[in-house]
Every structure is written in structure tokens, then in C-alpha cells.
Amino acid sequence: MEKFVVNGPCRLNGEVKISGAKNAAVAILPATLLVKGVCHLDNVPDISDIREYVKILKSLGSKITYVTKNELIIDNTNVTSAIASYDLTSKFRASYYLLGALINRFDDVQISLPGGCNLGARPIDQHIKALEKLGATIEVKRGNVYATKKSKLIGTNIFFDLVSVGATMNAILASTLANGVTTIDNAAKEPHIVDLANFLNSMGANITGAGTDTIKITGVEKLVPNSIYSIIPDQIEAGTFMVAAAVTKGDVTIKNCIPKHLEPITAKLKEAGVLVDEVSESSIRVRMNTAPNAFSIKTMPYPGFPTDMQPQMCVLLSMCTGTGIIVESIWNSRFQYTDELLKMGADIATHGSTAIVKGIEKLYAAPVFAHDLRAGAAMIIAGLVAEGKTEIYHIYHILRGYENILEKFNSLGANITHEKDDSEGDLNG
Ligand code: EPZ
Predict the structure, then answer these.
(1) Are residues 86 and 32 located together in one domain of the fold?
(2) Which of 55, 102, 303, 387 has its CA 20 to 30 A from that of 95?
(3) Cβ-based neighbour number of residue 150 at 10 Å
(4) For 90-130, how does the pLDDT look when each residue is reduced to its tens digit (9 = 90+)?
């Protein structure tokens, strides 16, 4: 097994440059399939989820050239297949965007049911609702999703039962080239939704209202790529480094970010007594020199507090001068990581979607698992402030969504190594 070994405690100081947004990139890469031509993307994060998506697109017939590790030229002129292999698409959640992207171009589309982080049930009923309302026929059987159409999709009104990032993205992808107007109500408003709409509009799509809860898509005949499109900075990566700076009582400037996207995180950190200053339109400075005040969080769709920052904030709350409460309202199982923090001396009691977190003096190094991508980031943050060597296993989760995470943390003064571990033992005994 591979592991990260985090030598703590340390204080983070200096500057870190944020990479492109994973959750925008995993929608924009399949969105290039709407074009029978060449798309040029920049600021694409060099992470395993993107490398997996490149494999999927190539398996469908895309020609993909890496200009740099973050700049891609994707030629979908000769995409001939709409059957994405189970092996490739079952590995992560965002493969379901292939449904919305391919159903315009092909009458029969097949992908596996999506995989992704283990956060509890991950249904796709809202995706199916949107595609069926547009005129597609969807069948889910033997672990695959089959989407078929007899004629061009027809614009319609879609009212989502709940706010879903993925279903909103898929509805935008499927309606961009449909006949007529589609409105999406109760839409997700995350920055990556806006980025997808901006990318499609840059090629001639007609999408308005992205970032609000009602999005209007007027179908167009075809899209024509023009200039290079640069993906937005990653809101959650930026937030992760903001929290790490606060937990280690450091002084870190986060560069290449969009402060507006970070407002729910900034507001909560300021409540905790963290000093957060907007240094420029693309950088934020985070400083902390005392223990944080207790605070409470309820995760909500954007612009509420992001669920993808919940584990990281729990580490900060564990070091507070009181007791705080975290309510996870998006996922029904996103507290597994608290078992790992308990091994490090944290005082956390979870009851269903609620965690009661009592502040403690210090955390102690221990061997821990990364249960999912953001939980893994939380383990790194805990290791930075814990006494001793924290060993983090199942680091493949972390490498899915954070580009050069060790280099970035070590450039700020951390001491983290990536090691092979010969022990086959199960850490849970
Ligand atoms: C996206 O997942 C992100 N992943 C997740 O980030 C993030 O946690 C989530 O949005 C919420 O912000 C990507 O963008 C690739 P949802 P998604 O559809 O689209 C329920 C990370 O760490 N739901 O907004 O799968 C669902 O069960 C990952 O980067 C339905 O009931 O999330 C959940 O309770 C982890 N039916 C809620 O809606 C559906 O058809 C929100 O899910 C779809 C969703």
C-alpha cells in the first residue's frame, strides 16, 4: 500500500497557487463531445479523475493532445462510439455527464451506473427525469444506463425535486442542442455550473441564468469552438488550504482563486476568529494565531456552506475553545472520517446527519484511512497539527482531486512524504 506520512506539528507560511476546478473540468471535458471539432482547454487540473476522463473520451474516438499537463486540445470530429466501457465509467461519479453530452449526437448511449466517493446513496433519478422530459428513453439494467432517442430532443420545462449539481449539469448538456427552449427550475448554482454554461456559450450556445435557480437554454443547431477556454480555479482546493492555514496557526496567501466563490467558507472562518483578507481579485490571505472560537455548520447547496468542505472544517472545529455542531444535509453518510479523527484524540460524537465536536488541546499522530477525497484532505490537515508522524492510507482518493498536493503543502513548510508501505495489515485490526 502507498501512504502519505505527515510530520507534525508545523505552521504553514507562504503562497500557494490553486489549480483548475475538478468539478468544472469533469463536466467541461464531456461537454466537448457536443462539438464535431477541436476544443482547446487551459487550467485543466492534472488529477486522476481527469486522466480517467481522457481515457474515456479516447475510447469513444476523441483525439487528445496535451500541450502542457494543464492545457489540452480535444478533437471530437471522429467520435464514433457512444458506448463507454463499464470498467472506465464505473470508477467515478462524473461519468454520467456522458449521457447528456452524447445523447444529442447518437441515438443510443450506454454508460455504467456512476461510481464515486462513498458518501451514501448516490441516486440519479433527477438526471433520468431531465433526460426523459427532453424526449430520451432511459433504462437502467445490469449496472448500466441506456439512453435512446428516436428524434431530436425537444426543449421543455424541468423542475428538479431537489437541488442537484450533476442533474443540473446533465440537463444543460442535453438541452444545448435540443429543438426549442428548456427551462430548469430549482437548479444548482455552484460556480462550476456557471463555468459549464460559460464554456458552452463561448462556442455559440444560448444559456442564460446559470448561477441562479432558473436556467434558460435556447437550443442551437450546432456549436463552433473558437478561442482557448480556461477553467475556473477550484473553490474547494482553495478552501482546503484556507482551513489548513488556520488549523496550523499559519499565514498563507491563496493565489489564483476567486474570492467571491469562497464567501461561505470565508464567512465561517471569520466566525471562528480566523483573519481572512482579500488581497486582490484573485488572492486571499489567511492568518491565525490563537485557538479558533467554536462554530456550527449546516452544509447546503451553493451559496450555502459547501459539503465538500465539511471534513476539513471539522478538523478546525476539533481545535476550538468550546463545542460546535456540524449538520450534513447533502449526503447521508459523510461522517466516516470522524472515526479516523477519534484515533488522533478528537472528541466527536455523531448521530445520523449531526456531529457534536468538542474542542481539545491537541491531536496525536496515528495511522488513518482516507475514506474519500475530502476526508483524505482532512486527514492531511489533522496530521499537520498533530504531534508525530501521521500515516494516511488509501491516498488514491486524495490524488483523484488535488493536483500536486504534497508539493503545495511542503512549499508552505509542511513535511509530508509519499511512501510505499509493505505492511498488508488492516489498520482496523
Ligand atoms: C457533486 O456531486 C460533486 N461532484 C460532489 O463533490 C459534491 O459533494 C456534490 O455535487 C454537492 O455539491 C462532482 O461535481 C463530480 P448532487 P453530485 O447531485 O452531482 C441527491 C467532491 O468531493 N440526488 O448535487 O453527485 C444526492 O444523493 C465531490 O468533489 C438525488 O437524490 O451531487 C445528494 O443527496 C464529492 N438524485 C444531493 O442530491 C439525483 O438524481 C446532492 O447531490 C441526484 C442527486
Answers:
(1) yes
(2) 303
(3) 8
(4) 777 788 999 999 999 999 999 888 766 677 777 899 999 99
